[in-house]
Amino acid sequence: MPTILVVDDHLGMRRSLSIMLQAAGHVAVEASDGVAALELIRKKPFDLVITDLRMPGLGGIDLLRTFRDEQRQIPVLVITAFGSIASAVEAMRLGAMDYITKPFQEDDLLQRIKGAILTQQHMLKSPEGSEETMSPVVPGLVYASPEMKAALIKIERVARSDISVLIGGETGTGKTQLARLIHAKSARNGGPFLSINCANLSETLLESELFGHVKGSFTGANETRIGLLETANRGTVLLDEIDTLSLATQAKLLQVLNDSELRAIGSNKTKPINIRVICASNRDIPRLVRAGEFRSDLYFRICGVSLTVPPLRERPEEIEPLLDVFFARYAKKYGKSGLRLSPAAKEIVLGYAYPGNIRQLENFAEQMALFCDQDGEIDIAALPEELLYPKAAESYDEVDLQGSRVMTRSEDEKTALEAALRRYPRLEDAARSLRISRTTLWRKMRQYDLNPRGRK
Description:
- By secondary structure, the chain is of the alpha/beta class.
- Helix content is 45%, strand content 13%.
- Strands 2-1-3-4-5 form a 5-stranded parallel β-sheet, sandwiched between helices. A 5-stranded parallel β-sheet has the order 7-10-13-6-14.
């Protein structure tokens, strides 16, 4: 029987929560403030702490901060009447499992309590660093940064309605994963989730793919086909890269969303459709609207709530947890165990900007798992070359906006090698400055026909 500590300076709220918990089969212990709560916690273990945010003396935020400093792994639910994103982010950053504002529904609170306790039990049983333990609130989703925690708080509320959502962010930041999370937490989670990348559909087939067609409606329509939107009826549709739709297709999509019905190509009949639409883009859609490249009425229709996923370079605290997830995945795939970065390799991996974001990090992790030593240690020699030569990786034979040629990767790499060889008399020092092994340096020198002084 779980024992739950209720911390609130209002006697009426403490008693109400205690009665509710006891009726649900829990043991409830009360504390009037953070100081009293700490005294109890230091004497006996609790399965969960429910605390008010604002209390005289030691409030909820200070209580969380003390738990962190004392390394106490206790799941905490924060309840407050003073809801704000700022306080929510701070509470989640300090380790709170959930954040609930007053007034709350009793069933909702009990469900969250059950989920928090089960998640904590699962984390204690799971191997450290496994994929299932990375997120105490959302299994499989890593969120160590305040920005991602704020996004998750927003998602918790957005998911309870059918409001349209527009997710922005660079390619590879995890927009699809957040869309799946909204679906999973919504009342539609029993229905289908369909992700459609609009950029992958040719303009000539796009309308047919989305809305369907009847047999004989155009050349090549040899049979009636149900559109993708109808396939997702009673579920959720993610329209990724929606900015790539033509203005004509945008107009037809807008009509479907406004009328909640669609008409297949070549048909005179409309069908009712019940879908939730989430859209994603890596471009600035308001700017496209101003440029006349995106319909303003469609933009206002799909942007009920706007979420922005920050790039990985702005949330570096998530690189290591993500690597743990990917290492666990690819260790199993390639029959490796104990995958870990050497100190030198770790410095390079954590210092990279990751222009391709999480997708690029996962690609790197797979390469590292494939080429690491037999004992599982990943040293500099096992790192992808893009990590060792980041400037070169960003300029693969590209042309800048003015039309002048940018240095190719091989030219950039050769220049870096020449500079290091001229600066450092000893090859060991040159290799260290380039963050590569001496063996790799010798191989590169042979590749570019360089002598130890950087000249041919």
